[in-house]
Amino acid sequence: MLPNPSNVHDTSTFYGKFYDRISKSGLRHHIRAVLFFQGETNALSGYQETIQSYQNKYLRLREHWKIDYSFDWEYLFQIRPGCWVGNFHIIQEAQRRMPQKVTNLRVMSSTGMNQANCHYFFHNGYERAGLDIYRMVARDLYQKEEVLNIYPPEVDSIWFSNCDRTEITLRLHRDDDTYFWTPGWEPDFRIEGDSTVAVLSGYILGNTVVLKLSKAPEASFKGLSYLSHIGGAEAPVKNANGIGMLIFYNMPVSDCINTSPKESISSYQSSVFPNPTTGIVQIKLSAPSTVSIYDVSGVLIHRECVNNFDVHPVRIQGPSGWYLVVIANEDLFHTFRIMKH
Fold first, then answer.
1. What is the pTM of this model?
2. How far is CA 236 from CA 148, 169, 200, in A?
């Protein structure tokens, strides 16, 4: 897809042929967005791509786009494994991170598209790609009202949610979207650094995905990957529009902090007080839970596992303002909005 560096518009290249067609059509100065679906070839081991090298190639390509065309938005489809065995995880992770490099770039997953092992079927495949991208384009270019579930589910943080490290929780970026778990695709997740650990099951809790592991990972554990699979349209996590979760590679997993011995479960409900607070909130639990505190931008500032059911103090580290306290376990998912003076 890259142009000939000595003759950018050389029509013997894909880039030059495309430029020639657009120029002759009279549309060159009327391009509003670029939709890009590429990367399977770069996954071949002979390319020896790294995350950085693929991103550099994409950035080099878009430099020429910006010279030759005038557009405001870019939509990048994240590829799925297929056609051959290769370093798909490298390309997928590079694509997932591209919005960190380019403003006005959105990434769309292909994990919910109906794939025929290499290319895609039309029904629920290429057709789905068009419908999924349309919702984004309608919002960005045509000022349509933003609705829920138009972006692919995307993980923004991961942690061990019990203190024996046999359960992992993934927090999804958009709190208001609706998510669904489809069993049977647990092998799409991979424990990096310890191939003896498998994901046995999972479920959705609010905007989190909880994974049950076969055992605790060894000290060689590096992180968690979601790599999808070849063929079909199923994915373990989708939103209410059927859009599959974005693939990620070797994301870090935070440790759980064990604060007290386990005691019997009492019958009262969880609560957080006082509100407002000067810095310390008292948390009362009805079951062993993970307590997480986020600032107003959604950044995690504190997390710990709490196993006792008496009042447990937690300090909010940060300036005055609003914070979100999230209490989660298998039976509940409570959020509390707290003001710190």
1. 0.77
2. 20, 14, 12
CA distance linking residue 3 with residue 10, whole number of Å = 7
CB 244 within 8 A of CB 226: no
Calpha distance 162→168 (Å, rounded): 8
CB contact burial 58-74 (16+ within 10 A = b; e otherwise): beebbebbeebbeeebb
The dihedral formed by the CA atoms of 285, 269, 314 and 297, expressed in degrees to the nearest 10: 120
d(CA 318, CA 297): 12
Q: pLDDT tens digits for 241-287?
A: 999 999 999 999 987 643 333 332 333 467 788 888 998 988 887 77
With a CB cutoff of 8 Å and minimum separation 6, the contacts of 322 are 296, 337, 338, 339, 340
Q: At what angle do helices 51-68 and 88-96 cross, to 10 degrees?
A: 50
Which of 19-33, 248-262, 284-298 reaches the highest mean pLDDT? 19-33
Structure tokens at 304: 């710990």
Residue 317: other Cβ atoms inside 10 A: 12
Nearest to 82 by CA among 120, 36, 117, 121: 117
DSSP conformation letters of 35-76: EE---TGGGSGGG---HHHHHHHHHHHHHHHHHH---SEEEE
Cβ distance 55 to 97 under 8 Å? Answer: yes
Whose structure tokens read 């024996």?
164
Work out the end-to-end distance of the chain between its first and last CA atoms, rounded to an integer number of angstroms: 55
**Calpha distance 232→236 (Å, rounded):** 12
How many Å apart are CA 132 and CA 107, to the nearest integer?
Answer: 11
Instruction: Tell me the backbone φ, ψ of residue 40, rounded to 5 degrees.
Output: -60, -45
Residue bearing tokens 């607070």: 277
Three-state SS for 93? helix
- Distance in angstroms (rounded) separating the CA atoms of residues 42 and 227: 16
